Amino acid sequence: MMDSALCIRNVSKFRGKAKVLSDVNLTVKAGERVALLGHNGAGKSTLIKLILGLTGISSGKILIDGAKPGSASARQSTAFLPEAVSFHPALTGREQLKLFARLSGGAKGDVPALLDRVGLSDALDRRIGTYSKGMRQRLGLAQVLLGNPKVALLDEPTSGLDPISRQDLYAIIDELAAQGTAVLIASHALTEVEARTDRIAILRKGEKVADDTLAALSASAGLPTKLRIRANADHADEIARTTGGTRINGASVELLCAPDQKMHELRRIAAMGDTVSDVEMTPPRLEDLYRYFAKGDVS
Fold first, then answer.
1. CATH fold group of domain 224-283
2. What topology is assigned to 4-218 in CATH?
3. Name one GO molecular function term (predicted).
């Protein structure tokens, strides 16, 4: 696809006789945020190494903004934030970013402004050896921002960050996407990526088993919607008998229904009148879909 900043076509990877990846197809368009999910050993790290050109492809093709992995053009277009980010402890944040700018062939950027953007303005002249893990992670994100990359690969980007810093990081990821960067996020933080990505791709034992929007995956899986009915007075038993639901405490009944039965069940509950005080409806979450597509083989 010509409009895809990252294009992965029928990619397989063997390690000895073992097939680590099997005919994987995946595209990420400019400005798109795609979550890459899979349990440990599913092939996420191997795929990232292939994109970066750190290991060879057994068959298939990968293009980064039209260039082959490992080429000068692909390296210039790609930014990578590893989970275990590491920098020279004797350098300051300012010195490290200036070094990266020189190494990348003169990538221009206002270093103090970048460090301020990731919440490190008070530490730009402190030695990195004094940084916490979360601070090093934010410095790594500043490195990603430095070159205005075409493709950003983020491996567990919120590792070591507190809740506020996590929100700030995803705000920056949104900015990256808004400026046209294709963002691929490998993560186990399902709640985060559920709300902050455009598409979900799931690997299982080296094969891509899902790749779509959350809504489309929900429709495809057909997982039940959970209805929680809160009863007035002592009507919980009556509601449980009428709906076939299960009492979960003294005043509520839980009911599971198929996607195409939601309106039918809501009308049936509404017909119970004053015996019902409230209804909460919970559609399948990404965690449910992940377990479904990964066949429960998660860690």
1. Alpha-Beta Plaits (3.30.70)
2. Rossmann fold (3.40.50)
3. ATP hydrolysis activity
